[in-house]
Amino acid sequence: MPSSINVIKMHSLRNTILVIPPHEKMSWSSEAIRAISDFQTGIGADQVMVCQYPSEKVPSSLKTSIWNHDGSSALACGNGMRCIIAYLNTAVGQIVTLYGPVGAVQGWKMPDHTIAIAQGSVTIGLEKKSPPSPGSDASQTSFWIPSLQRRVVGIPAYIGNPHAVVLGPVPEGLPESWLASNGDFPDGINVSFVWPKLEHPPANFSEHTRTNWFGDTFFVKTWERGVGLTQGCGSASCAIAEVLFTRQTMTHPDQNPSYTLIMPGGKIRLWRDGLNWVHCAPAQTIAHCDWWYSDAKP
Question: Which pLDDT value is given to residue 129?
């Protein structure tokens, strides 16, 4: 006999998230995630956040598993964590601890009711490439774009998920379905293109990149593994902020480490708290849905 569970459909930066509240009798498979994530035949989602209680049911503590639209598992999802905090509807400033695949992440509601997530510290470089191959550069990695017959170079950065930050605008004609992988990242990587917001953009961008990276507002587009072009990405924002901060402090050691990143889905604010990055953006509920399945293990 068919059964159902309640699912909360939410979004942050227009990144569509399904929050699955704790349900002790449920387990999830890649097939079920693909079914519920399908925008035509399911509820539709970029990511699915499956919540569980820890050993004791603590209102301000949840375990989470993270799934991508294509049924693959993810290590981190800043916007998904933000949606969970918004769903819990805790008091302003009350810290909630979420235990994800790579450890604890904390979040809280700001006075303006946006949600802040302390995502953690960022590691830059090819940490998985040890020892590096002869002649390689551990500070960068490159990706081939077959449809454009060109290569882009990114700066690797890890904050749970692997990211590559490309300093420059998106190549014209890059397909929305492009997913980057190479010898460094055979399972794929999130690639973000970032470029400064300028009052008077130069006619030739490449001639001005060395002098225009010292602002605090930047445009971003991210291609996320398991998703494609995404409207917004919290973990990517931290990777970008750390790359920008590292680049700026090389010549401007007193640079204030706070940024506004303009993504397709909206703006995300970031600031540095010690070695960790905190990002802040709105999260909203779209709908409460019932997901029907035919047995106890969808």
Answer: 46
